[in-house]
Design brief:
With 283 residues, the chain is an alpha+beta fold. The chain is built from 7 helices and 17 strands. The strands form 4 sheets. Strands 2, 5, 7, 8, 9, 11, 12, 14 and 16 form a 9-stranded antiparallel sheet that branches. A 3-stranded antiparallel sheet has the order 1-17-15, with no helix packed on it. A 3-stranded antiparallel sheet has the order 6-13-10, with no helix packed on it. The protein is globular and about 55 Å long. The chain starts with a helix and ends with a strand.
């Protein structure tokens, strides 16, 4: 690693990442004048390639956060529910996918991390020798997160941590990045077993919120908490139903149990839209 990259990594290690990200989140929720927001949206859209596919509120976007968490117009996302397959929960780039080798999940070429560290409870055992897919959301992507399968939300795991950036240079250089960062995992019980939807926090992601309960990440006081709902509190979902929101962009890691899915023919770096098929489920 070059001296410059080593220094940058050192700086990121010592920065108060959670505090800075929380401050960014507060700023993003401050109402701003319409002319400023219009200029910001034009600049941001040009810089990050935001497509004109979203719903504009009647009086426009009042805050940066409202623009980041914009909803799409009808017909932009077509949910492929016709067969026994899983769909992408987000608009993203496919970074890694394949088999979980015992407890090892691939982060980047030559770098892996422990499934047990990603899910620090006995629940990790459900996914031993299973399959995973890592999906990276760029700053210009749609930031809402949806169910990849039909099933029932049976619980979640909120795991505090730090907030390193998840840009490519960091993913390729910092081992265990995804298990260092704050994250929240949704557990969905499907006809093909349990599916984990891991929402990974990152630098400047002020919050991750859930759509099925009042939980959000990056609070001032937080603790590790894994919750399984009672039967009456479980939430039925169809593929494409909203699970949560990144208040900016980050990374999703999908986890499937052993033998539950055969992924379609992708290559790392391929782009995918929310609702597109990612693989065939085996019941």
């Amino acid at each position: 690693m070059s001296i410059g990259k080593s220094l940058t990594l050192f700086i990121f290690r010592i920065l108060p990442k959670s505090l800075l990200s929380r401050a960014f989140g507060y700023i993003a929720r401050i109402p701003l004048p319409g002319p400023f927001m219009s200029s910001f949206i034009r600049w941001y859209s040009a810089k990050y390639g935001v497509k004109d596919e979203y719903i504009v509120p009647g009086r426009g976007f009042k805050t940066i956060d409202r623009f980041f968490t914009r909803k799409m117009r009808d017909g932009v996302h077509v949910i492929d529910r016709a067969g026994n397959w899983a769909v992408s929960p987000v608009d993203a780039r496919i970074d890694q996918f394949g088999e979980i080798r015992d407890t090892t999940v691939m982060q980047a070429k030559g770098i892996g991390y422990s499934l047990q560290h990603l899910i620090p409870s006995d629940t990790y055992r459900k996914f031993l020798w299973g399959s995973f897919m890592t999906l990276y959301l760029s700053p210009g992507d749609y930031h809402r997160i949806h169910a990849p399968v039909n099933g029932t939300v049976i619980g979640y795991y909120n795991i505090p941590g730090t907030l390193f950036t998840v840009q490519d240079w960091m993913v390729n250089r910092l081992p265990d990045l995804f298990v260092k960062n704050e994250r929240i995992i949704t557990y969905i019980q499907s006809s093909a077993g349990t599916v984990g939807v891991c929402k990974i926090g990152a630098m400047n992601v002020g919050r991750i919120t859930l759509s099925y309960c009042k939980i959000q990440t990056n609070r001032t006081f937080r603790k590790r908490r894994e919750i399984f709902f009672s039967p009456e509190d479980q939430v039925p979902v169809r593929a494409g139903d909203e699970l949560g929101v990144f208040h900016l962009g980050s990374t999703i890691i999908l986890l499937f149990q052993k033998g539950a899915i055969t992924f379609d023919d992708f290559s790392p770096g391929d782009r995918i839209r929310m609702g597109n098929r990612i693989g065939t489920l085996h019941f």
